[in-house]
Amino acid sequence: MEHLWAPWRKAYFEKEETTAHLFEIIAQSQEDEKNFVLTRGKVSFSLLNRYPYNTAHCMVVPYRIIKSITELTETEMLECFHTLNRLCKSIQRLFSPHGFNVGLNIGAAAGAGIESHLHWHLVPRWRNDTNFITTIGHTRVHPDDLPTVYKLLIEDLAREEEDV
Question: In whole angstroms, what is the distance from residue 38 CA to residue 154 CA?
Fold first, then answer.
């Protein structure tokens, strides 16, 4: 029998409970590289998902702690969608996915892992990216590591800003 090791997942299951909101901590932190923060706007920020479904799985998060899309201001909606658009374009240039899943999980019943702080997931998809190892082994195989993906995205987003 062969084994596929994913020891990095252990940190997720063993993380300490905290009363502070994860996204609030990251939003207030100055350690963008450590937290894989990609962009910072006036009312939102974006970051790589530390436990990605696929390469370049990103999240867009309003700074304000809200639970539902109905609580967003017009400014928050516009900036979040502008950021999603920028990230889609950058990921397309760098990784050439065949499609994207963009979504919100509002409430625990809908699958929200961080129910108290609304956030979008942007998941690049490739044909056949769900294969036997995912289906049978319940394990994802990622061809890229987070620091490399982060560096590529940060550089591409910075070039895009210069061109504007």
Answer: 6
Q: pLDDT tens across 145-163, in order?
A: 899 999 999 999 999 877 7
CA distances from 87 to 1, 16, 115, 116 (A): 40, 30, 23, 24
Q: Of the residues 117, 119, 121, 138, which is catalytic?
A: 119
> Residue 20 CA to chain centroid, in angstroms?
19
pLDDT, tens digit (0-9, with 9 covering 90-100), for 31-82: 999 999 999 999 999 999 998 889 999 999 999 999 999 999 999 999 999 9
Report residue 78 as tokens: 């516009």
Distance CA 125, CA 130 (A): 9
| Residue 119 known to be catalytic | yes
pTM confidence score: 0.81
Which phi and psi (to 5°) does residue 112 adopt?
-65, 120
When computed from its CA atoms, the radius of gyration of the chain, rounded to whole angstroms, is 16
